[in-house]
Amino acid sequence: MPLMGCARVSAVPDEVDRPGSPRWWSARLGAAQPTAGRGRPPVPLERIVDAALALVDEVGAQEFSMRALAERLGSSTATLYRRVSGKDEILTYVADRLLGEVTAIGRARGPVPTWEAAVIAGAEVLFEVLRAHPKAVVLFLGHVPAGPNALRGRESALRALLAGGLSPELAALTYTAVARYVIGFGLQLSEEALTAQATADDLRTLYRSLDPERFPATVSVADVLPQSLAEEFQFGLGLLVDGVRRLRDGQPG
Amino acid sequence: MPLMGCARVSAVPDEVDRPGSPRWWSARLGAAQPTAGRGRPPVPLERIVDAALALVDEVGAQEFSMRALAERLGSSTATLYRRVSGKDEILTYVADRLLGEVTAIGRARGPVPTWEAAVIAGAEVLFEVLRAHPKAVVLFLGHVPAGPNALRGRESALRALLAGGLSPELAALTYTAVARYVIGFGLQLSEEALTAQATADDLRTLYRSLDPERFPATVSVADVLPQSLAEEFQFGLGLLVDGVRRLRDGQPG
DNA sequence: ACCTGAACACCGTTCAAGT
DNA sequence: ACCTGAACACCGTTCAAGT
Fold it and tell me: Cα A192 to the chain's mean position, in Å?
């Protein structure tokens, strides 16, 4: 509460209605046209979000700036503030757009035979999309996704679980745990995805260089470290789905 | 690769030796005294890291600034740059210090009877520490922790797994998958931990307000949503550990 | 030897002034 | 009605100048 004056700081207090929060989305989803003003908007919101995603993919969320986005759109920052409330709002739209990609890919691949296959397919498609946009994953930090694409994706996933015979309680727990699991792993992709192999090799080298007296266990597993985050991801995902299946089969009713 | 001139930007290219990478830590761990210069340093690194953690806890990693840190230390930013290479390096030390807290708490609580209990206890202590420093969790983004406290923690965890009869392969997979799982969930704590209940309530309200024709599954689970991230965390952690146990028991040898 | 004020090149956001 | 240059209050990092 010192440091007043700068809008970046003074915007922090009212957290609950910050772009991306459930309440914030709720207000926006209720409105007929999110950005309808008096005249027709010359730069549609969609173009802004397209450009923003491209910019994040290129330079990263950290280096993303309103100035750079305005330049890419051949406009000025002040013009952007006529369409959106600020940087946070734009990035919230970018996150929901990624979830739209997930839906599109899932639909393109067609139906799956069982609820287990649906969970695994959904988790893997989301993970793929996050891997394709490693610099954008941090946009999911601190939000439960609640935009239109998030809602549609959740609905179809929950339908598959309920149709598979899971109780509402187990379906809700499974959905949220798996979604968190995928995003949690995705967050760790970060920008390192590009240099993942280098990181894995460096880690192995570091472990091997340790004093075997003090670090015997670490040294002994240096040669069998998982090769990639994707491998760790698959391993845990399989365990989660197996565990849910056992719970379902032991479930009353 | 435009935008030259500002050090923040020009520092990005050589990713591999950025503070926190395995190679970067490896160089530092080899050096006798990390910051030994000619005279005795008047502001020990430990004081800087203490102050930095306190500052991150208070204002968040996003608002953390070298100016604010210098002011808290009664010094100037230029003085900080005599002890560390920059903001990234300080935040890397802060992350490793949190892992030190994990070790200290684990030690204080004493030994556990089985490898399963060790995994669960370790995961829960780490999760508790992350929950106690929700604004600091983002410091784990994009790094495999490789500082001194990270190495010690990994060693003792791997020892417990190997002693429990897991093969080196299964021990390595289990350790990395569980560590990623905990940090992944921890990352989603973010600053929302403070308003978690509000978020959960908002989500429930949002789900209930949806059109039951279009979102029947979502509406039907609105009343049984998990109450907290901690609940989702426990659920998944239990499934993971059960799954590993079954793999261990079916493991050759 | 150690420290620091002031500078440089950036931010997000706003608003008076233009068309 | 719509747009924007210029301003304001911040950043991380560096370096000449002080003690």
Answer: 16
B89 φ, ψ (degrees, to nearest 5) = -65, -45
Cβ contacts of B172 on chain A, cutoff 8 Å: 221, 224-226
Give the single-character DSSP code of A136.
G
The answer to whether the predicted template modeling score (pTM) of the entire model surpasses 0.85 is yes
CA distance A77 to A35: 17
Task: Compute φ and ψ for B51, nearest 5 degrees.
Answer: -65, -35
- With a 7 Å cutoff on the CB, does A38 touch strand D? yes
Query: B243 — phi, psi (to 5°)?
Result: -65, -40
Q: B35 in contact with A at a CB cutoff of 8 Å? A: no
In order of A251, B108, B112, B115, B242, the CA distances from B175 in angstroms are: 30, 22, 17, 12, 14
Q: Which residues touch strand C (CB under 7 A)?
A: A 6-8, 11, 63-68, 77-78, 81, 86-88; B 3-6, 9, 37-40, 42-43, 75-79, 82
Q: Is B42 on the interface with A (CB under 8 A)?
A: no
The pLDDT tens digits of the residues spanning B25-48 come to 888 877 644 444 444 456 788 999
Q: Are B241 and B177 in contact (CB under 8 A)?
A: no
For chain A, the maximum distance between any two Cα atoms, rounded to a whole number of angstroms, is 74
Q: Give me the residue label for tokens 């780490």.
A: B126
Phi, psi of B11 (to 5 degrees): -80, -15
CB within 8 A of B52, min separation 6: which ones? B64, B69, B90, B91, B93, B94
- Tell me, what DSSP letter sits at residue A165? T
Residues 6+ apart with CB under 8 A from B101: B129
What span, in angstroms and rounded, lies between the C-alpha atoms of A170 and B224? Answer: 9
pLDDT tens for each residue of A9-61: 333 344 447 888 888 888 888 764 444 444 445 678 999 999 999 999 999 99
Do residues A135 and A192 make contact, with C-beta atoms less than 8 angstroms apart? Answer: no
For residue B39, report the phi and psi dihedrals to the nearest 5 degrees.
-85, 180
Among residues B116, B183, B193, B107, which one has the least CA distance to residue B143? Answer: B183
Within 13 A of B39's CA, how many CA atoms are on the CB side?
A: 4
Q: Which three-class secondary structure state does DSSP give residue B189?
A: helix
Exposed/middle/buried for residue B67 (C-beta within 10 Å: 0-12, 13-18, 19+): exposed
Tell me: pLDDT of B164 over 80: yes
Measured distance CA(B239)–CA(A236) in Å, rounded: 9
